[in-house]
Design goal:
By secondary structure, the chain is an all-alpha fold. The protein has helices at residues 16-29, 33-49, 52-63, 69-75, 78-92, 116-124. 59% of the residues lie in helices and 0% in strands.
């Protein structure tokens, strides 16, 4: 269990009828109230994190600098967080910091260089 998965005591109030219903379900399933609550919270977070409306809210708050990237990574899946980061860099006009693939030769060994001067000369000849 990682440090972030260590149990943390949380106290909250709930209508008595919900607690009674939760306890009855826990008894029926042979588990306890805490396990049911933790599972319900996990399911809610999973469902919420994948909803378009929630992702749009996270993106808007991130683009408006109301959320930092570390918070975004905790709210949405890593691929979505990375996409938001790249789009924000685009919106901010920042250059992308993308490393070239190390294991793939996209040129199949046929690399050519173009100098700016050569490009200018060919444009003049047109």
């Amino acid at each position: 269990m990682s440090a972030s998965d260590d149990p943390r005591r949380v106290h909250f109030q709930s209508p008595e009828s919900l607690v009674d219903q939760l306890d009855a379900i826990a008894d029926l399933l042979g588990t306890d109230r805490t396990d049911l609550l933790v599972e319900a919270i996990r399911e809610y977070i999973e469902e919420t994190a994948h909803s378009d409306q929630f992702q749009e809210l996270v993106a808007q708050r991130y683009y408006d600098d109301e959320l930092d990237f570390e918070t975004v990574k905790r709210l949405v899946d890593p691929e979505t967080a990375q996409r938001f980061r790249l789009l924000k860099a685009d919106l901010d006009g920042e250059p992308h910091d993308l490393a070239a693939p190390e294991e793939t030769d996209i040129y199949n060994g046929d690399r050519r260089s173009v100098s700016p001067e050569a490009s200018d000369e060919s444009a003049d000849q047109r």
